[in-house]
Protein 1
Amino acid sequence: MVNIVEFVQESSLSPSQWIGLTSEGKGVYIRYRWNTLTVRVGNQPVKGDIIYKKEHSQNNLTTNELIQILSSVENINISKENHISLANISKELTEIRNEM
């Protein structure tokens, strides 16, 4: 189970992108492009292991829609309470963001 404890939307344009942090301190990279939602986890999240990849029919994907989709995935724990603004990201997530 991947427990996402903090995540922030980096871009709402195409592609929509979010970055996050797991409870184990690994980075999370979430990208929605060309109707495909991909979630990667790792020390270098952009190149990390794909833990979810699936096509969806939305043109754009909002954070609320992302949470709704990923909340139904068996091996991912994500919650609206863990969505934060760029101004409030933790030191750990800032480091992950700077390495991307």
Protein 2
Amino acid sequence: MPKILKVLIGLGVAALVCVVVMWVFGAQWFAKVVSRKAALRHPVVLVVPKPLPDTTINNAPGTDETFGAYSFEAPWKETPKVNEYGNGGSTYAFGARMVTVYQRPPDELIAELQKNPQNQQNLDTLFEGDRPKTDYEFVRRILNVTPDTFTWSMSKMETMRDGMLLALKTSTAPVEGAYGIFYVTTPEFHGFQYGVPEAKYAGVSVDLYNDNVLLKFTFREGGGRPAIIPQADINRIVQSVRSTPSYLDPVYK
């Protein structure tokens, strides 16, 4: 079960606790204190999504790789060593360059929440009738909350809603996002990139959403060392992700 789903399973209890604590001690005061502490432990909460600054694409001759109902182009001529992990996971090793991709069902988070009527009721209340309808929209709202979001003029309901989103951000946003979170749009997908190659962190990850699937890419060096894949190479792979010609029905439907 994905980490964020484990967090969301307890959303009903967490929401109730937040309501009680904030109503007793003051929502704005509570949010200010908690958000400041969260930023110290989880720097990623300070970052919001921005347009990707480097959109160049490496169009060098390379290889075409297929995984399930999808494919991508890599700007390298090496024939990759492919490892299948089951559950839609595959790693392509182009020498020291590692590309891992997992396929997840579409709107998995929303579907999990809909199994519990209490969770749905909590979200409807917190979002005042405008709760997110897709996983992409839900994650976008989570990522756009920071400690600076909280102001003394916010209503208690707004403070509780954004407090929940901030808590989810500390628990679920990839840590490499502390070096940057960016919007990604392709012909078939939209999503987010977490991290940048020049940060020399453990890797760069990209989540791509559409109506049929969530594709989770990770770009890193063999052995888990800092990513050495340039942004232009990452862009080539991400922008080339397509449904295969034989793709007729959603994989998970």
Protein 3
Amino acid sequence: MKDPWVVLGEIVKAQGLHGEVKVRSEIENPENFLLPSLCLRCADGSYKPLTVQRYRFQKGGFVLSLVGCESIDQALSFMGCELVCQGSRLPSLPDDEYYHFQLLGLPVFDWQGKELGKLSEIMQTAAHEIYVVQPQVGCQGEGELLLPVIAAYIIDIDLEAGKIVVDPCGKGGVAFESPAELSPE
């Protein structure tokens, strides 16, 4: 599998007069800004190595101090560039935690082995993430499937096998024992 470039954030403006930049990012671990393998991906598609000296959180974003960027003019030249890192260079996560790039595009199967489609998007909500599954081509009458990322719906994520196993009914792979279970009480 190809080592994908993972976007850590986008430079949205210069911050102050001394070359700092404001970055819009939904990164959970801002220490990743300090990775030695960070690059800038510019609008023209070019990549430039990048070193972040320090970062701080400020008003819904991050302010970064970049090595070699010492003026507002230099900072402005980076506007619109993305901070990226190759996925293999990101720190390992604990068991049962995954980077989004590892999951997007994986085929999704129900607990009985029927392929439902591919994971196309991961939405954030206040309670938990939602997996958006686009149906496989040829499925009639089925639109996208939205699955809360909780144990009742997500049975297994197997990166080695390259698949996600789910229960769209939210019973965690347990078959209904009687029609009475289907009716609300």
